[in-house]
Amino acid sequence: MTHKPTSPTPTRGALDALAAAIAEFNTSRPLETSIAVALDTLRQSLDSPECSLWLHTADGLVRTWVAGEAQAAEAEVDAALAGTGEAHGVRAVKVIAGDRNVGALVVRLSRPLQAEEGLLLTGVANLLAPELAHAERSRQLEVEVAARTVEIDRERRFTEKIIDSLPVGLYVIDREYRIQAWNRKRETGMQGVSRDEAIGRTIFDILHRQPFEMLRREFDEVLATGRIQEYQMESAASGDPRTYRITKIPMRLGDSAVTHVITIGEDVTDWREGQQRLSQAEKLAAIGTLAAGVMHEINNPLATIAACGDGLGYRLEDIQRKGTEVNKDLFDYIEIIENEVLRCKQIVDQLLDFSRPKQLAKSPVDLNEVVEKTLFLMKHHGGFKKLTLVKDVEQTLPVVPRGNAEQLVQVLMALIINATDAMGSHGTITLRTRTGPSAADGAIVEVIDTGHGIARAELSKIFEPFYTTKAPGTGTGLGLAICYGIVQDHRGRIEVDSVVGKGSTFRVLLPTIEW
Fold it and tell me: What is the pLDDT of residues 368-388, one digit of tens each?
């Protein structure tokens, strides 16, 4: 009679140990805790001094969990898995999840491993395999989520850095008018508000100085129409009057209606002043073209009128010498004709400075010497004698390498005469020279008065030809325009600061580099 071989049947102790391990993995405790309990249950069931779980890593097998004394070495585990021996009583079974070898379950015994104990070891290994695979997938997912979170946070900080680096103020509001973004430029300046203070509050709480209804109407129009708004505004909140370009841009999160409004505020004061200087130069060029076209037509009739006036004067004198009485008014009329013809000729000559600039030789010029020569010429001016003069010159002032001293004297005289007229019979005129901030504006001369000042609305017009605030008949309105042209011909700039009731400062900035 032939007996078929039978598989070993687990003992009650092995079954109980396996059931305890299964029950442990069905609890809600962390995987690490359940593995530790299962290993300790296995160790006690086998009466083993060591029961451990090893995992495959890039560096080879690594002992990850252990119950009892950790003594087995990696080489011993490799040998046990290869079946080449049972060094020091080390027994190992592979932990396989699907088709992937995850690691090994290892026990150390000083006796042979019974068949049912081998089944228990294999059963626990099979129980650990899916748990470890699931844990590995979870860890991979956590790593991916963590990496993506880091990437998103890096992109967010990079975007914030870009927005904070912009030389414009920028903020974003939602449909409830609450601030969702507030860049660094909005935090700076006298009117700056910190980001922490602004985020989450309504824009009306932060920009409380602006009219509520106007501000809300602007945002509502962008939210409703989806059109960009752009306008300019002036503000003196920082002390000096500044011009800002405000742009409101609709923003959509998806294809729906406008969800946010981006507002950008850009200081365009310098750009606007540059545009005004360009406009002024264009006006001067237009006047020059006009003068070039009409100067001969005007000079010819003026010469005829002057000749006729002289002829009438001689005739009246002949009649008077013959004993005939001549009405004195006739001589007065002739004098008026001569004076007005002379005034017209002066105006035409001034206009010719625009149409045919004098190509005078240029050489190195010391502005301090220009100031001294101007004061020497002005000392005989009646109005100038009544005023207090303050001279503040910088002795180490750099030389203007290409200039014409006579023309610059003409500029300073015109500015001083205007200052004298603005102050009347009392006041102080200060002439100051100083080194500029750069070689392009390397030498600066200022004429400062304590007169009645110039209204802001008039500042943009004072360099226009024929524009004057003086009484009729006391000025042609060409003095400052000619000054502007001379300074521009020297590759320089002329600026003016003025406060009504306190006075004005005219500033001539000239380059100290060769051009």
Answer: 999 998 888 787 676 777 788
**Inside any domain, residue 34:** yes
What is the tens place of the pLDDT at every residue in 36-83? 888 888 888 888 899 998 888 877 888 888 899 888 888 888 888 887
Residue 315 tokens read as: 């005739």
Give domain status of residue 151, yes or no. no
pLDDT bin (cut points 50, 70, 90) of residue 392 is very high
Put simply, whether the predicted model's pTM sits higher than 0.70 gets the answer no
The residue among 21, 70, 78 whose CA lies nearest residue 50 is: 70
- For 152-226, list the strands marked E by DSSP: 169-174, 179-182
DSSP string, 39-67: HHHHHHHHT-SEEEEEEEETTEEEEEEEE
All residues at 6 or more sequence positions from 174 whose CB lies less than 8 Å from its CB, including other chains = 180, 259, 260
If asked whether residues 367 and 350 sit together in one domain, one would say no
Distance CA 368, CA 431 (A): 10
Full domain range(s) for residue 468: 363-510
Give the per-residue SS3 of 467-479.
CCCCCCCCCCCCH
Which pair of structure tokens corresponds to residue 414? 């015109």
- End-to-end CA, the chain: 123
Q: How far apart are CA 441 and CA 349, in angstroms?
A: 31
